[in-house]
Amino acid sequence: MASFEIISDITDVEVIAIGNSIRDLERLREQYGDGRWRKMKGIALIQLSNGHVRKAEIHWYEAHGIGRKEFKRKGYLE
Questions:
Q1: Residue 22: which of 66, 60, 71, 57 has the closest Cα?
Q2: Which residues pair with 46 in a beta bridge?
Q3: I need a surface site. Which of 35, 45, 46, 56 has the fewest CB within 10 A?
C-alpha cells in the first residue's frame, strides 16, 4: 500500500519497459491478469501520509483493460 496519494495529473509519462522486459511480469499476470503490461514513469504532485505535498517521480505498471497498478515513489524533484 502506497504511503502517498497522487493529487495532480501525471506528466512527462514515459514507457520504461514492455512485456518480457518487465522483471515482475509473471507476478503481474498472476495477480491482475493477462494483458500487454508496461512499466511506466512520470512526474506528479503527491501528498504524503504526514500531509506534506511534494513533486516526485512516480513508477507504476499498466495494461489495457486492467489499468494502472502498484504506484511507487522513486524520488523527490524539489
A1: 60
A2: 6, 54
A3: 35
Tens digits of residue pLDDT in 16-68? 999 999 999 999 999 999 999 999 999 999 999 999 999 999 999 999 999 99
What predicted TM-score, i.e. pTM, was given to this entire model? 0.91
Domain boundaries, the chain: 4-76
Q: Do 62 and 38 contact (CB within 8 A), yes or no?
A: yes
Buried/exposed code over 15-30 (b: 16+ C-beta within 10 A; e: otherwise): eebeeeebeebeebee
What is the Cα Rg of the chain in Å? 13
Q: How many residues comprise the chain?
A: 78
pLDDT value at position 52?
A: 95
Strand ranges (DSSP E) for the chain? 4-6, 11-18, 38-48, 53-63, 67-76
What's the CA gap between 60 and 70, in Å, rounded? 5
| C-alpha cell of residue 23 | 522483471
